[in-house]
Amino acid sequence: MSAQAQPVHIQDVCILVASHRADSQSRRIGDHLKSRFLEGQATMIDLNEDKLPLWDGSEPSDEAAGGGESPADVVNRVRQKAGEASSFVFVVPEWHGMAPAGLKNFFLWVGAEELAHKPALLVTVSAGTGGAMVVNEMRANSYKNTRLNYIPEQLIFRDVNNLWADIQDRESDEYLAKRTSCALKQLKLYTEALSPVRSELTASLKDYPNGMS
Ligand SMILES: Cc1cc2nc3c(=O)[nH]c(=O)nc-3n(C[C@H](O)[C@H](O)[C@H](O)COP(=O)(O)O)c2cc1C
């Protein structure tokens, strides 16, 4: 018998929305995951709202343009949010067969200190039939130094504009809801299993800050 699409409580989970477009489908899906499947209990980093400066090796400026947050404020806030999370849901769109450049920029600002050995569920989204290339890309090259721990389960949301939208009674919506609930339950189990051993796992980072390649 297949699992039901029930909400899951995951302590201190953070949803990272990797689209840096305004009004993105990734954000819509991130909001939907939070409200329907995570009991509304998740923090969120949205790379459109949380406008990280482009990393160039220099310290972020603490001068705010137009009275808003300074680049240094944004970097600190995003680092703090990631650091406080015990696990992540990464919602990543496929852009030209790639993960967005802003997500790579995120990994240059936020690293092992905030991410290492924390479990992460990959959710990729595509307006068409894409999504798999991004899964492969993330699993291939975003964990080496961050030591982010992608769980084996993943979700690929194709035809995303119509997913959990206005069309009623779509069999595929129901299937993906159950599948989402199942993947989040697994994320919860990994989170609970790994949280108590995180300090032991991260102890070797001072000797080996970079993974082998
Ligand atoms: C610059 C750009 C490139 C895109 N390239 C692809 C692609 O290679 N494959 C694909 O399935 N969808 C592609 N799309 C469409 C996205 O799947 C679509 O915009 C979807 O809504 C997810 O992106 P979003 O979260 O930014 O809305 C692209 C979209 C943009 C903005």
Mean pLDDT: 95
Strand content: 15-25%
Can you count the beta strands?
5
Class by helix and strand content?
Answer: alpha/beta
Spatial strand order of the main sheet: 2-1-3-4-5
Query: How many whole angstroms does the radius of gyration measure?
Result: 17 Å
What is bound: which ligands?
Answer: flavin mononucleotide
Protein architecture, described:
The chain is of the alpha/beta class. The protein has a single domain, classed as Rossmann fold (3-Layer(aba) Sandwich). The protein has 7 helices and 5 strands, in the order E-H-E-H-E-H-H-E-H-E-H-H. The protein has helices spanning 25-37, 71-84, 101-109, 112-115, 132-141, 171-194, 198-202, and strands at residues 13-17, 43-46, 87-93, 119-125, 149-157. Strands 2-1-3-4-5 form a 5-stranded parallel sheet, sandwiched between helices. It is globular and about 50 Å long. It starts with 12 loop residues before the first strand and ends in an 11-residue tail after the last helix. Flavin mononucleotide binds at residues 19, 21, 24-26, 93-97, 125-128, 130, 160.
Short recap of the structure:
This protein is of the alpha/beta class. The chain is 37% helix and 15% strand.
Can you give keywords for this protein?
Rossmann fold, 213 residues, 7 helices, binds flavin mononucleotide, 5 strands, 37% helix, alpha/beta, globular
